[in-house]
Write a structure and sequence with these properties.
Chain lengths: 251, 193
């Protein structure tokens, strides 16, 4: 049986892991390669690396980091941040990344999703969507959630699937950093709207929040950062508890 | 050991190289038929779309070479699918090494299947020291139908062949290079065959 995935996310700046609380106020949480290796050994199913600086000079540092991770880590990982062309993706896949995640660049030029899925296959194209619920409706936001758009979440999700996305990483801006649980209602609706896997992101605070994201939110994977990085929820303990609740996980 | 990875422009080959490297082996990329024929073992990778991958294989003449190889050959993911008779993806004729066909998962399930699934009905030395119910990492929208040459099955939508064997040819739908210690064991088993 296909299992639900637990995905630690490592925000990267200048080759180091950081975690934003509501996307600001960064705290240092360690060396990404060491952390990635540890997570793989502790039972994480997949990893996401987000280059939050994503400047040109940072790109080389990021490629070096991806190469090191690919050499040492034996589970799949996704790289995101500042990716806007076929060349960007080609370089990252050549360094050993399994998937790439695109966000603002896909909203600005949706054809990028088609181009990437045709060239590299849908399986390596993750479209990340940051959205915020405003007066009942969910709107897509850009640039780490700072710039609002008039695009509605569910319309955009449907479009990215049609254009060839292999997976959606959905972050609720209302929940991110709150540690009060994932946006389960929106997640559940997303799974009804599209037929590709959904990674839930934003709001993890307790083990029960993960269970709720899988059961109520029907998510295929759940992503979190600080609860893992600072040892508040050990990955193995989380997975054991999920299994007790009848949720299929890899142990 | 002379290990060659068939390089025809399809897929994330770096991860496969790194996986062999972690076991202390150097797997070299090659599209040169003379070098591939001489290798002790051959890895046939593949990620992407079937008809364009087959087109690239044909352009380099490797479509004729691969079925003739006598040493152990391991097809991974799309590599395995291309070794079957036919795939629905792009209505593509395969290399006819494995006597089965490749079909698309129905929309009763999310497509692609992405993540860790169990392997069962393990039959071959390729699964030595790997247990029924161990997990492998898979990413795919198309699956090989279960058949007599299945050496492992998985369940998603239906029960399908997640590994195949025919004489010196092996194929795995999952990514052993990304399947943690269990995947590393499978690669070691292939090296030991």
């Amino acid at each position: 049986m296909l299992t639900k995935r637990i995905v630690p996310c490592l925000d990267i700046k200048n080759g180091r892991t950081v975690k934003g609380v509501n996307f600001v106020d960064l705290r240092d949480a360690g060396d990404p390669v060491v952390m990635a290796k540890q997570y793989a050994e502790l039972g994480a199913d997949e990893l996401v690396f987000l280059d939050i600086a994503a400047t040109l000079e940072n790109r080389k540092t990021m490629h070096e980091m991806v190469l090191k991770v690919a050499a040492q880590v034996n589970i799949p990982f996704t790289v995101g941040g500042g990716i806007s062309s076929i060349e960007d993706v080609d370089a990252l896949l050549h360094c050993g990344a399994d998937k790439v995640s695109i966000n603002s660049s896909a909203v600005k030029r949706p054809a990028l999703i088609n181009e990437l899925s045709e060239k590299f296959g849908s399986q390596c194209v993750v479209v990340a969507i940051d959205a915020k619920q405003i007066e009942g409706d969910w709107y897509v936001h850009l640039a780490g959630g700072t710039i609002p758009t008039e695009i509605k979440l569910f319309d955009w999700a449907k479009e990215v699937e049609e254009r060839g996305a292999g997976e959606i990483l959905f972050t609720s801006m209302n929940h991110d950093g709150t540690k009060a649980g994932f946006a389960n209602e929106a997640l559940g609706k997303l799974s009804g709207v599209v037929n590709i896997p959904i990674i839930a992101s934003g709001g993890a605070g307790t083990i029960q929040h993960f269970a709720d994201a899988f059961i109520k939110g029907k998510a295929d994977a759940a992503l979190a950062a600080s609860v893992f990085h600072f040892g508040e929820i050990p990955v193995l303990e989380l997975k054991k508890e999920l299994k007790k609740q009848g949720i299929p996980v890899r142990l | 050991m002379d290990l060659k990875i068939v390089n025809y422009g399809a897929g994330n080959i770096k991860s496969i190289q790194f996986a062999f490297q972690r076991l202390g082996y150097d797997a070299v990329l090659s599209h040169n038929p003379d070098d591939i024929i001489k290798a002790d073992k051959v890895i046939f990778p593949g990620v992407g779309e079937a008809s364009s991958a087959m087109k690239m294989l044909k352009e380099s003449g490797l479509d004729a070479l691969i079925p003739e190889l006598k040493q152990p050959v391991l097809g991974i993911c799309l590599g395995m699918q291309l070794m079957c008779n036919h795939t629905e993806e792009g209505d593509t004729k395969g290399l006819e090494i494995f006597n089965t066909n490749v079909k698309r998962f129905s929309n009763n399930v999310k497509v692609p299947q992405m993540g860790w699934n169990t392997v069962a009905n393990l039959k071959s030395d390729l699964f030595k020291n790997i247990s029924e119910g161990d997990y492998m990492y898979l990413v795919h929208s198309f699956y090989a139908e279960n058949c007599e040459q299945s050496i492992a099955t998985s369940n998603y939508d239906i029960e399908y062949a997640s590994a195949l064997e025919n004489e010196n040819f092996f194929g795995v739908q999952f990514h052993p290079e990304k399947s943690s210690t269990v995947g590393a064991q499978l690669i070691q088993n292939f090296l030991d065959i």
